[in-house]
Amino acid sequence: MRAGLAPRVLQMAGRTRCVAIAPHMYTHAYVKPRQLHISRPRLSESRPDDQKSTTAVEKFKPAEPAETAKPTKPLTIRERISNAWSTVKYLFRFYMNGVKQIWRNREIVKKIQEDVKLTGRSLTWEETQLFRTHSSDMRKLPLFLLILVTIEELLPLMVIYTPFLLPSTCILPSQRTSIMKHFEVKRKAAVVELRRHVDEDHDFDVPVIERTDEPDLAGATLAQVAPERVRELAVVYNQSLWGGTALQRRRIARHLAMLRDDDSLLASSEVMRSPEPDVALLEQACTERGIRAVNTEPQKMRDLLGQWLLYTSGRPLTTLSLAFLPVRLSSPVDMVSIQLEREIAEQNRKGIVEQTSTIVKEVVEEEKRIESK
């Protein structure tokens, strides 16, 4: 630094900075002062000590209380009555629409019968399924109507405990899926028990006995099966367990005789040939034959039905061999069934009130959706 120049010193934030050097007033009066350009300190920058202290303060800073939800205003008696009446109205409308659909199906069945009588053609497999379903719905209709007009509140409980008493037109697709899942868990458990006890030396290639469509003669072959296994076969084929072993044998024999006639129509049906088959019909065909129809792709169901037809059409089976055919077609290790068991166990943990409320809610939402169209 030249003699006679006195720097001006500025104290800023505890630091010494030189901002300018001016000439001495006596020795360098005519020298132009020089300016030193310095950057200003950034206000956002802080020293490490300051950051540590800030972090420590924030660490021990008490948390602010969360905002509590405002309590909902309780419904008045009039509002509760209005909501209950609206729910009952939607339930009644849904089940009445199901009853009306039964009568519409009746008209369709009559038209098909008239066409078959005039043309002399045979019924298709799809038409026989419609006839069979409609006949079952008509048998269930009297009791269903009695409950509907007297104690309508029992109908959601029937979906849980007695779904076999409900007409097919009075069950939502979601409810049908839930019913089929419960059935599949029971069916798989019965198949596992049958697999444990079935005789491995049993010949599945024995020709069909004569007149196997007669229940008594067909039941004679099923007489070789122990009563415990008869009950498991009834579960596999979704037959009623009411009555003793003799009645269960007759139901199974009658069902197997129906399947023999049904297989010939199924082999040439549209559901086995169409690139986009009716999934509901595929599920129905599999359920009737003791084949899994839940969480299964349509092509997989069609492949299993094709294997069934290879056994029943290509190589005739005795009634006893046909009865145990679902055991042969099922796989020993089934991850889908394990997953279904977990779903059913989770659903069973819910109380009856919660399950019933879910069913009622589904029905009401479906009716509101139809109403908004």
TrEMBL record:
Region spans: Disordered: 37-73
One of the GO biological process terms: intracellular monoatomic cation homeostasis
Domain Letm1 RBD: 153-369
Recorded GO CC terms: mitochondrial inner membrane
TM stretches of this protein: none
Membrane topology: Single-pass membrane protein
Keyword NAD: no
Keywords: Membrane, Mitochondrion, Mitochondrion inner membrane, Transmembrane, Transmembrane helix
GO MF annotation: an example: ribosome binding
Primary site of residence: mitochondrion
A UniProt-annotated Pfam family: LETM1_RBD
Bias kind Basic and acidic residues: ranges: 42-64
Protein name stated in the entry: Letm1 RBD domain-containing protein
Subcellular location per the Swiss-Prot or TrEMBL entry: Mitochondrion inner membrane
